[in-house]
C-alpha cells in the first residue's frame, strides 16, 4: 500500500511548507504593491488584486491538491492499522476522508473566486473549507484516541484534540464576526461608514 511506502511522510511537511509560502508570498507582493496594510490583513485580502491574486490562487490550489494527497495517505494508514486492531469502522474512516475532501474543495473555491470579485461564492468556499477542516481534524482526533495505545500515544492525542478545540473556537468566532460586517472593498479610510447588516 502507498502508506507503507517509505518517503510519504514528506507530503504533510510539503503541504505545510507550500501553504505557508502561499500566504507569505502573496502577503509580501500585496504589501509591496500597496494593496494591503502591512499590519495583519485578512488572508483573502492578500489574494484579491493582481498580481498577487494569481500567485495566491495558483499556490492555494496546489495546497488543496497536497491536502487531498495527505488525507488519502492518512485514510490508507488507518485502513492498514485497522486490519489488525479493528479500532474504528471503515465507514467512519471513509466519512472522515469525505469531510476532508469537502474542505479541500472549499479551498479550491476560495482560491479561484476572489473576495471582492464574487464575494458570496468566496465566502461559501471559506465556510466549507474552514468548517469541514474543523470537523475533519476533530474526527481525526477521535480516531487517534480510539487507536491508543497501539498506534498513538495519549500525548499526541491530547495535542490533536487541543488543536481541534482551538480551531473550533476560532471558526465560531470567524462566523460570528463575519456575520456582523459586509466588506465590499479593501481600501477604506478612518471615519468612513461601513455597510453592515
Automatic annotation (TrEMBL):
Membrane-spanning segments: 7-33, 53-73, 94-112, 124-143, 155-178
Annotated compartments: Endomembrane system
One annotated Gene Ontology cellular component of this protein: endomembrane system
Entry keywords, A to Z: Membrane, Transmembrane, Transmembrane helix
Chief location: membrane
Extent of the signal sequence: none
GO biological process: regulation of autophagy
InterPro entries: CWH43_N, DRAM/TMEM150_Autophagy_Mod
The CWH43-like N-terminal domain, residue ranges: 8-182
Pfam families tied to this protein: Frag1 (PF10277)
Family: Belongs to the DRAM/TMEM150 family.
Name used for this protein in its record: DRAM1 protein
Amino acid at each position: 500500500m502507498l502508506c507503507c511506502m517509505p518517503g510519504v511522510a514528506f507530503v504533510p511537511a510539503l503541504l505545510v511548507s507550500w501553504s505557508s509560502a502561499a500566504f507569505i508570498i502573496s502577503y509580501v507582493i500585496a504589501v509591496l504593491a500597496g494593496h494591503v496594510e502591512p499590519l495583519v490583513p485578512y488572508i483573502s485580502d492578500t489574494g484579491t488584486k493582481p498580481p498577487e491574486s494569481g500567485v495566491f490562487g495558483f499556490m492555494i490550489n496546489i495546497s488543496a491538491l497536497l491536502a487531498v494527497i495527505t488525507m488519502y495517505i492518512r485514510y490508507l494508514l488507518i485502513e492498514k492499522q485497522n486490519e489488525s486492531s479493528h479500532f474504528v469502522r471503515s465507514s467512519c474512516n471513509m466519512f472522515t476522508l469525505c469531510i476532508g475532501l469537502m474542505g479541500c474543495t472549499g479551498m479550491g473555491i476560495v482560491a479561484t473566486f476572489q473576495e471582492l470579485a464574487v464575494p458570496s461564492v468566496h465566502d461559501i468556499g471559506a465556510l466549507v473549507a474552514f468548517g469541514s477542516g474543523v470537523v475533519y481534524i476533530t474526527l481525526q482526533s477521535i480516531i487517534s484516541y480510539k487507536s491508543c495505545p497501539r498506534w498513538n500515544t495519549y500525548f499526541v492525542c491530547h495535542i490533536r484534540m487541543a488543536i481541534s478545540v482551538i480551531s473550533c473556537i476560532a471558526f465560531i468566532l470567524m462566523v460570528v464576526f463575519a456575520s456582523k460586517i459586509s466588506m465590499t472593498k479593501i481600501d477604506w479610510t478612518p471615519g468612513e461608514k461601513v455597510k453592515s447588516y
